[in-house]
Specification:
single chain, Rossmann fold, 8 strands
């Protein structure tokens, strides 16, 4: 990564630590209790945070595509945590190269029961190679749910990008399914936030 990207990554880390890292007693989506919580949406829905996520995330996606020899056509994940992350990265990709945009989609928790009855909304087609994104990975359950829906719809997973890996086994759960997972940050990267 170049110096600009490193600076953007440090700025993003600082913003996450300031706005999103919380200490106390929390119940996670998995039902587990934790004294460390990352309220990522406070950063992902912040305009500066979204721009930084796009910049840092797109650099990481390009690096992973080159390293793995996989080209992705689209990016998305399970609504709602993945939505702003995917859109930010998609916009950054578009700003850099509008000739081959990285399309953006979202995966619903269940298919709509009206309209087109779709579970995957946005710019996704069967056969697409896609990057799956997540804001925070704990057990990996949300990411695995998205992967299953994408594969069921005929998509191919290039790799998975997480804004934050809480380092609680989720990454390993996803990797056991044969998918490469790369976090932008880990819990260790954010753990020195003021309590």
């Amino acid at each position: 990564m170049d110096v600009t990207t490193l600076s953007a990554k440090e700025e993003l880390r600082s913003l996450l630590k300031k706005k999103s890292v919380c200490h106390g007693e929390f119940t996670l989506a998995s039902g587990a209790k934790s004294d460390f919580y990352v309220d990522a949406r406070v950063t992902t829905f912040d305009p500066r945070g979204a721009r930084l996520i796009g910049q840092v995330g797109w650099e990481l996606v390009k690096e992973m595509m080159a390293g793995l020899g996989r080209k992705a056509r689209a990016i998305g994940g399970l609504t709602m945590g993945a939505d702003p992350v995917a859109l930010s990265i998609g916009i950054a990709a578009q700003e850099e190269d509008s000739s081959t945009p990285l399309q953006v989609f979202t995966v619903r928790k269940k298919a709509k029961d009206h309209g087109r009855l779709k579970r995957i909304e946005g710019n996704f087609s069967a056969g697409d190679s896609v990057v799956v994104v997540e804001d925070v990975i704990t057990t990996g359950g949300s990411t695995i749910q998205a992967i299953e829906a994408i594969e069921e719809a005929g998509g191919q997973i290039a790799f998975v990008v997480a804004l934050v890996d809480r380092e609680e086994g989720g990454r390993q759960n996803i990797e056991r399914l044969g998918h490469v997972v790369v976090p932008i940050f880990t819990r260790a990267d954010l753990a020195d936030a003021a309590r």
